[in-house]
């Protein structure tokens, strides 16, 4: 058998060797039996039933004189149910959002308050379905009863019957009060591995594992650890706290350009100062790690903010496409790489428009009269279309003219022999990319709206 040396078990040997025999300040005991089908040097695995209340005893394990600053004071513990598999940890946000969508109004983790003892001010954040927290006094008996409402097979790929469920972790992080009365100073963290089954499924699984072990030879049984009546949570690293950014809307695209006056006069542009161009939300090499975290949140990469918490803008921008895909997986990796490189999505159709003005009409008249025509500079505006519909064109032209889309009655295209052809979706879909048009406006006969003609 392979010896359980740190070189072979890097995952579980994250704590320094001197901590192995250290007496921890607190101990947490989950009152549920461990599985007998776990090999000697592997982490314990505990089966739970969905929605059933399970007791976790919060024990003060301090030696005399240890942490005297919390004597007679409360501490805060935060409980989380998180993914054990690293692959799912990378996509935790998407997984939990998918669960929320399928189970509206439900929570992943709850406290059974009537059964719990010694807990003070229990709280459950409605936006964090897998987290609960409370205060407690280490000098008094404290037991919290938790309920886990998600089951392990809800996060597996549905390929065929009898899918193997994914393991979760129950993690507890405990904090003491700082000088400002905030519970931010970390004291202790511990966790254990669980799997959650439909009601009574955990009992059946425990029975099946026990029967399998009974069929093994005594020599094979020696390779497995016995089933313990309770599960002791083992010390682990604290769960990294993410500094959430305020949900301020990211700079939007402002497509209103210089205002055109649509009237019966010459229709020349009012040269008002244009609004500043939209700020491109590109990550800069000079961005600090904190600014890089904010950029990840703004661009819907919150899932990976913990992973990249020490990366500056320059660190992120140095990553190759292969690096990002390996870290984040193919789908999010490609999305993050494109966002880092600031790649713009090319519109389906671009057209250029210029409003017909009295100056242009005078020029045409001079040309017809045989006068010399001096070169004149005309300003065109680009219109980018994605949906290729008449409604979209109407809205974009209304923004260009700084009027309401309801004020545009019809849009026509000048056809052969000067006829006016009503613009339809099909016609827009057949426009050539980067076509140029001169806009002419006519007041509608009935109401206060306008017809626009593309020439």
UniProtKB/TrEMBL annotation:
Subcellular localization: Nucleus
Cellular-component GO terms for this entry: nucleus
Grh/CP2 DB domain residues: 20-259
Top-rank taxon, per record: Eukaryota
Transcription recorded as keyword: yes
Gene Ontology terms for molecular function: DNA-binding transcription activator activity, RNA polymerase II-specific; RNA polymerase II cis-regulatory region sequence-specific DNA binding
Compositionally biased spans, kind Basic and acidic residues: 200-224
Official protein name in the record: Transcription factor CP2
UniProt keyword annotations, A-Z: DNA-binding, Nucleus, Transcription, Transcription regulation
UniProt source species: Phaethon lepturus
Family: Belongs to the grh/CP2 family. CP2 subfamily.
Pfam families: CP2 (PF04516), GRHL1_C (PF25416), SAM_3 (PF18016)
Residues covered by region (Disordered): 197-227, 255-286
Gene3D superfamilies to which the protein is assigned, alphabetical: Transcription Factor, Ets-1
InterPro entries, alphabetized: CP2 (IPR007604), GRHL1/CP2_C (IPR057520), SAM/pointed_sf (IPR013761), SAM_3 (IPR041418), TF_CP2-like (IPR040167)
């Amino acid at each position: 058998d392979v010896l359980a040396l740190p070189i072979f078990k890097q995952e579980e040997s994250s704590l320094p060797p001197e901590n192995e025999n250290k007496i921890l300040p607190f101990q947490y005991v989950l009152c549920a039996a461990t599985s007998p089908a776990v090999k000697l040097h592997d982490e314990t695995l505990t089966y739970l039933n969905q929605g059933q209340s399970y007791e976790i005893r919060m024990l003060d394990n301090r030696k005399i004189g240890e942490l005297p600053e919390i004597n007679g004071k409360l501490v805060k513990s935060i409980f989380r149910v998180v993914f054990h598999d690293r692959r799912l940890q990378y996509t935790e946000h998407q997984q939990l959002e998918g669960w929320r969508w399928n189970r509206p109004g439900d929570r992943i983790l709850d406290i059974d308050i009537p059964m719990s003892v010694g807990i003070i001010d229990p709280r459950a954040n409605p936006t964090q379905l897998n987290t609960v927290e409370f205060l407690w006094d280490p000098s008094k008996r404290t037991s919290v009863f938790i309920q886990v409402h998600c089951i392990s097979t809800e996060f597996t790929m549905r390929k065929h019957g009898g899918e193997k469920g994914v393991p979760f972790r129950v993690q507890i992080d405990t904090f003491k009060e700082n000088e400002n009365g905030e519970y931010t100073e970390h004291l202790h963290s511990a966790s254990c591995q669980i799997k959650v089954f439909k009601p009574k499924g955990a009992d059946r699984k425990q029975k099946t594992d026990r029967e399998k072990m009974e069929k093994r030879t005594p020599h094979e049984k020696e390779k497995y650890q016995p089933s313990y009546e309770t599960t002791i949570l083992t010390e682990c690293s604290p769960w990294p706290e993410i500094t959430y950014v305020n949900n301020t809307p990211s700079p939007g695209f402002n497509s209103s350009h210089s205002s055109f006056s649509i009237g019966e006069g010459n229709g020349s542009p009012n040269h008002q100062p244009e609004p500043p161009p939209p700020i491109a939300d590109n990550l800069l090499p000079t961005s600090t790690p904190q600014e890089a975290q904010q950029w990840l949140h703004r661009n819907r990469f919150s899932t990976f903010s913990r992973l990249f918490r020490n990366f500056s803008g320059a660190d992120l921008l140095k990553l190759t496409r292969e690096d990002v895909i390996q870290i984040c997986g193919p789908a999010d990796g490609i999305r993050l790489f494109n966002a880092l490189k600031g790649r713009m999505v090319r519109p389906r159709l671009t057209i250029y428009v210029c409003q017909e003005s009295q100056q242009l009409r005078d020029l045409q008249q001079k040309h017809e009269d045989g006068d010399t025509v001096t070169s004149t500079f005309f300003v065109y505006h680009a219109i980018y279309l994605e949906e290729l519909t008449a409604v979209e064109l109407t809205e974009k032209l209304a923004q260009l003219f700084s009027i309401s889309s309801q004020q545009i009655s019809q849009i026509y295209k000048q056809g052969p022999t000067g006829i006016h052809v009503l613009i339809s979706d099909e016609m827009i879909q057949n426009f050539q990319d980067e076509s140029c048009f001169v806009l002419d406006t006519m007041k509608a006969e009935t109401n206060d709206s306008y017809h626009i003609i593309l020439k």
